[in-house]
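hiii so um. not sure if this is the right channel but i have a protein structure encoded as C-alpha cells and i wanna go backwards to a sequence. like what aa goes where. can anyone help
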C-alpha cells in the first residue's frame, strides 16, 4: 500500500507562493477537485472527481497535529453514479488546488470553498521492501518539516483532520 507523510496548515497563499522559488519548487499543475467523503468503518473513503475522471481513495491516517503517516490506495472509477450510490455520503468538499513539487513532496496550495486557504504537504514514502522513488519514514518527516519551515509555516498550527472534518464542524 502506498504511503506518505502529510501535514496541513491554514495559510495566506500569496506569501507562500513568494517562497516557492527559493525552495526550487516546480509548478506541476492546477486542479479543480470535488471530493465526496463517505462513512466507512476504520478508514477514510472519498470519491475524487477531477478533469472528467474519478477515483476512489481509501486511506488510514491518525487525526493528530504535525506530520503524520497516511497509508492509501487509489482505485480508478468508471461509473461515478454507481460509486456514489454504494455508500452514504458524509460531506462534499470543492477545492481549487495549485500543485507544486519539491523533491519527493507534493505541495498543494488549496482554496477550499467555505473553509479558506491552506497548504498541504504530502511527501512520498518508500513501500516496505521497495527500492523505489520514496523516502524512509524518518527521511520523509524531515523533508516535510524542512519544506514547511522554508515556506514560513513551521510555527503555524497544524490541522489534525481532513477538509471533510473541517466542513462538518463548520456545518454543525
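sure thing!! here u go:
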Amino acid at each position: 500500500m502506498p504511503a506518505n507523510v502529510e501535514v496541513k496548515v491554514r495559510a495566506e497563499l500569496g506569501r507562500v507562493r513568494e517562497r516557492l522559488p527559493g525552495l526550487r519548487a516546480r509548478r506541476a499543475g492546477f486542479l479543480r477537485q470535488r471530493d465526496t467523503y463517505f462513512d466507512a468503518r476504520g478508514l477514510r473513503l472519498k470519491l475524487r472527481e477531477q478533469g472528467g475522471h474519478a477515483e476512489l481513495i481509501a486511506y488510514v491516517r491518525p487525526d493528530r497535529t504535525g506530520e503524520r503517516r497516511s497509508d492509501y490506495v487509489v482505485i480508478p472509477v468508471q461509473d461515478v453514479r454507481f460509486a456514489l450510490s454504494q455508500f452514504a455520503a458524509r460531506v462534499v468538499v470543492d477545492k481549487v488546488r495549485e500543485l507544486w513539487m519539491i523533491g519527493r513532496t507534493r505541495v498543494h496550495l488549496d482554496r477550499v470553498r467555505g473553509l479558506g486557504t491552506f497548504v498541504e504537504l504530502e511527501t512520498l514514502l518508500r513501500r516496505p521492501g521497495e527500492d523505489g522513488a520514496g523516502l524512509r519514514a524518518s527521511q520523509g518527516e524531515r523533508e516535510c518539516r524542512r519544506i514547511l519551515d522554508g515556506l514560513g509555516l513551521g510555527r503555524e498550527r497544524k490541522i489534525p483532520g481532513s477538509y471533510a472534518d473541517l466542513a462538518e464542524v463548520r456545518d454543525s
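oh and The beta strands are 3-10, 26-38, 44-50, 53-60, 68-77, 89-102, 105-112, 116-125.
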